Amino acid sequence: MNRNKGMVLVIIGAVFWGIGGTVAQKLFQQYGVGVDWLVATRLLIAGVLLLAIQIIRKDRSQILGVWKDRRAAIQLIIFGLVGMLGVQYTYMASIKHGNAAVATLLQYLAPVMIIIYLIARKQNVLTRADVWTVSLALTGCFFLLTNGSISQFSVPPLAIVWGILSGVALAFYTLYAIPLLKQFDSLVIVGWAMIIGGFALGFIHPPWQINLNSFTIEAYFYLVFVIIFGTMIAFWFYIESLQSLAPKESSLLGSIEPLAAVLTTVFWLKVPFGSFQWIGALCILTMIVFMALNKDKTSTEQASLNS
Question: Which residue from 151, 122, 170, 184 is spatially nearest to 299, judged by alpha carbons?
């Protein structure tokens, strides 16, 4: 029963992550919501809710305890500003300038970036599995971004730049978080990181400064979905799934996230997707599943999930 519960949780969490990106695209394009405002608001609210869950369900002493360790506190601030804020902002900016499907798939290049980084640092050796992973990623990106035509990109350049930066930020997010997650509960680290990132961005665009005149009931529903379901619940369910599933199983089931983003972008928002782009998306999805089945290193597995 516990294993079945874990599978249900990770699938629901992954679907919420994927749909959350598409809903954010709707807010950007139809209601004129700014990236700065949405990122700051979703991080602050989701961060507070995650810490509230920690207080209710787990060791509440860790919430303040992390700040009593000077080294951990400095790492947490860096993680919040560069890792959490970097991932969230670049991902949302890629969605705004392009679409949720392409942004999510580009972000899923993070595991490949981690492989290349570890090999360059001589912490890993190049394996046949790595070659297949990188090849699938590069092939997928080529078809996804060009739709088979070298002469012109089928995706706006800014969306590509932000999407690649999102993958880089996610790679940093994953590698940098490892020491902190060994010392403190994940809800504490991620909750505080969200608050730090949201607070910092709030100086540029305070959450209370927004014109709500154009907002409809539907827009408020979308906003609540992005913050509660697409951020807080998605992460919480994934973390809870690790209590009864191996990281490899959670990673494999988590590959539903980009699939959910692609399907909702194409069939709900009616964004055109060329035949070669479908081939590119399939290559990247195959890469994700391949890594989940062949990688035993949990840090690499989790890179494609904690977006």
Answer: 170
The length of the chain is: 307
Q: State how far the Cα of 196 lies from the Cα of 200, in Å rounded to an integer.
A: 6
CA gap 167, 153 in Å, rounded = 19
Contact yes or no for 63/195 (Cβ under 8 A) = no
Which CB contacts under 8 angstroms, 24+ apart, belong to 33-37? Answer: 33/210, 33/223, 34/205, 34/210, 35/89, 35/92, 35/93, 35/96, 36/89, 36/201, 36/204, 36/205, 37/205, 37/207, 37/209, 37/210
Tens digit of each residue's pLDDT (9 = 90 or more) over 211-244: 777 789 999 999 999 999 999 998 888 777 767 7
Residues 147/277, Cβ–Cβ less than 8 Å: yes
Q: Is the pTM of this model over 0.70?
A: yes
Domain ranges of the chain: 2-303
Return the pLDDT at 304.
Answer: 40
Q: What is the pLDDT of residue 302?
A: 42
Instruction: Report the chain's C-alpha Rg in angstroms.
Output: 19
58 vs 215: CA distance, rounded Å: 37
Q: How far is CA 131 from CA 59, 126, 137, 213, in A?
A: 42, 7, 10, 52
User: Is the pLDDT assigned to residue 271 strictly greater than 80?
Assistant: yes
When pLDDT is averaged across residues 75-87 and rounded to a whole number, the result is: 95
Is the model's pLDDT at 307 over the cut of 60? no
Query: What is the arithmetic mean of pLDDT over 207-212?
Result: 79
Dist. CA 37–CA 24, nearest whole Å: 12
DSSP assignment letter at 194: H
Tell me how far CA of residue 143 lies from CA of 181, 238, 304, in angstroms: 36, 30, 20
